[in-house]
Amino acid sequence: LNGQALLQVPVIDAAGFDEISLRALSTLVPRSLEDVLPPIVASGEIEFRPEVSLAADGRIVLEAARITTSGAGSARVAAPYVALGPTDTLAQEPASVAAGSGRLTVEAGLIDVRGQLGVSGVQTLRLSAAEAIRLGGVFPPGGADYAGRLRASGDVEFRAPTTHVATASRFELDSGGAVRWLPEPTGPGAPVLSVGGSLTVRARDIQVDGHVEVPLGSIAFEAPRFRLGDTGQLVTTLSTTAPFGRLEAGRDWVYELEQGLKRAYPEGLPAKSVSITADSIEVAAGVAIDVSGFG
């Protein structure tokens, strides 16, 4: 089929690949039509049929603006390292998503979600990592920062010792259902070595029973109902040493971005904040919302 590639997982499994990389590029409008058409004509898409299980002993990279499940079955992606989302700097427009009844589970040691990614056709997207889930942005031409966004048609579930945002990345998570951080029996993971990011989560319901960390950054939750359970923790304090920028002219703290751009912090290091906007807020006794310390 024109513009489509159909892959059979048994064939991939039989080949014995340690690394699998699938890339579906978005179709960009020709420069001559940029004034009359949107920049992206069609978003690149990777679709999983029901009951598909894609696994590798090394890494799996799924690079597309939209990942879709078809039908009511489950699909699974598993490897020590899994990366989801597009890194093409010219194709960073949010992809549309549609409701569905599928389930997509991603299991790895480390999961990277980067760029503008839509997950469509799912009732539940579950990201489960033994080490960490990292949310990161891509720096587009003419941009001002590293921007990333995950849009999901259904519920989103995280299970990992920590979920954190990459250095200087601005990441947004929009769910058509609930967003849940599930309890992690092993407790907090290794120290997070990222600084100065921001995370905004919007959903119908948000439940935090895991660890969400944005050191020297900001966390914002927006939902009709928010719950921080007795195993949940929100952290914006830097608990370890990490390289981040330099002091210029003895006055301004500056971080090098890309394309020759810099981000300046005239008041010093980035401000730390946690904000919760909800009609109903439940916070269990003894949980931590930590914005203390200088970093």
Structural class: mainly beta
Say what oligomer this is: single chain
Q: What general outline do the C-alpha atoms trace? A: globular
β-strand number: 29
- Estimate percent helicity: under 10%
The arrangement of helices and strands along the chain is: HEEEEEEEEEEEEEEEEEEEEEEEEEEEEE
- Measured between the Cα atoms of the first and last residue, the distance is 54 Å
Whole-number mean pLDDT? 86
Beta-strand portion reads over 45%
How many helices? The count is: 1
Task: Give the biggest beta sheet.
Answer: 16 strands, parallel
Low-confidence stretches: none
Rg to the nearest angstrom?
20 Å
What does this entry look like structurally?
By secondary structure, this protein is an all-beta fold. Helices cover about 0% and strands about 50% of the residues. It contains one helix and 29 strands. It has one helix at about 10-15; strands at about 20-25, 25-30, 40, 45-50, 55, 60-65, 65-70, 75-80, 80-85, 100-115, 115-120, 120-135, 145-150, 155-160, 165, 170-175, 180, 200, 205-210, 210-215, 220, 225-230, 235, 245-250, 250-255, 260-265, 275, 280-285, 290. The strands form four sheets. It has a 16-stranded parallel sheet that branches. Strands 4-7-11-13-16-18-21-27 form an eight-stranded parallel sheet, with no helix packed on it. The chain has a three-stranded antiparallel sheet with strand order 24-25-26, with no helix packed on it. It is globular.
